[in-house]
Design brief:
- This protein has nine helices and 15 strands.
- The protein is elongated.
- The longest helix has 13 residues.
- The chain is an alpha/beta fold.
- Strand 5 and strand 6 form a beta hairpin.
- The chain folds into two domains: 88 residues, Alpha-Beta Plaits, CATH 3.30.70; 155 residues, 3-Layer(aba) Sandwich (Rossmann fold).
- Strands 8, 9, 10, 11, 12, 13, 14 and 15 form an eight-stranded mixed β-sheet that branches. A four-stranded antiparallel β-sheet has the order 2-3-1-4, covered by helices on one side. A three-stranded mixed β-sheet has the order 5-6-7.
């Protein structure tokens, strides 16, 4: 099936309303893309994070009268004489196959592989986590997720309890279990993340060792030997009292979702309770680790 696409230069304040309107008038999909070369931050679970200058890209059936679409956008105030937009035909492809071809097994550390279900496992003797892109964030492709997976791979998790704070897809909790943890606990603010984590744990045969809680439902006295939180710098600083309390004395803490330029402020927030290690950096993102005193 052939398609036609309209790309509209917008702002983060206008993009959500424009997206809703485009869907109402027949767009089969609407996506947001950063229109300048600015850092892309990972969203909190359940959050749509837009950039300061955002392109809204809407896909329509090729038979759609795009001039009528432009007229409707103009009538609703989404376009004006100064608005920049572009209409282009999209080559007909097997989009599902193309999407699947973009995901390959990836190795993290010495033992751990993350593998989509439709690919052959490269090393049957390795620690293999089967994970497909789905409802919630987290497939290992982002540098912050990779940094956390490599850190977990380097720990001795045998017999330990691990908390994945902001679990998303459950990738970190599941990896910890497959790396030898006795139990893992996933915590998130988004019910979709809880559902995705449970489904992924079942696919990997570790659901019986994974507990999942919405943030407001977690036990008050919950603690673990290892706590990993891959969210964002701002929430990590704000949640210091909660996250630090989850770590047992002499327990390990791993934090990511942090730009290198933000690392000093996050370290400052946690240094009162943790002996911090040198910050690990990858592609402008970083990971902060430490041992609780």
């Amino acid at each position: 099936m052939a398609w036609v696409q309209i790309r509209i230069n917008s702002t983060n304040e206008q993009a959500e309303q424009m997206s809703d309107f485009l869907t109402d008038i027949g767009a089969v999909s609407v996506t947001f893309m950063d229109s300048q070369d600015t850092p892309i931050f990972e969203p909190l679970p359940g959050e749509t994070r837009l950039w300061g200058n955002t392109d809204v890209i809407a896909l329509f059936d090729a038979e759609t009268d795009m001039q009528e679409i432009v007229a409707q956008l103009s009538a609703e105030g989404h376009l004006n004489a100064q608005s920049a937009y572009k209409i282009e035909q999209i080559e007909d492809k097997d989009w599902e196959r193309e999407w699947m071809d973009n995901f390959h097994p990836m190795q993290f550390g010495k033992r751990l592989w993350i593998c989509p279900s439709w690919r052959e496992i490269p090393d049957p003797h390795a620690v293999n986590v089967m994970l497909d892109p789905g409802l919630a964030f987290g497939t290992g492709t982002h540098p912050t997720t990779a940094l956390c997976l490599e850190w977990l791979d380097g720990l001795d998790l045998q017999g330990k309890t691990v908390i994945d704070f902001g679990c998303g897809s459950g990738i970190l909790a599941i990896a910890a279990l497959k790396l030898g943890a006795k139990q893992a606990i996933g915590i998130d603010i988004d019910p979709q993340a809880i559902l995705a984590s449970r489904n992924n744990a079942e696919q990997n045969g570790v659901a019986d060792r994974l507990q999942l809680f919405l943030s407001e439902d977690k036990p008050a006295d919950l603690q673990a030997d290892v706590v990993v939180a891959n969210i964002l710098a701002g929430p990590l600083k704000e949640l210091y009292p909660i996250i630090s309390q989850l770590v047992k004395p002499q327990g390990d803490l791993g934090l990511s979702g942090i730009l290198e330029s933000q690392s000093a402020s996050v370290c400052q927030a946690y240094q009162a309770s943790f002996d911090l290690e040198p910050v690990a950096v990858r592609e402008e993102w970083c990971r902060i680790t430490g041992l609780k005193r």
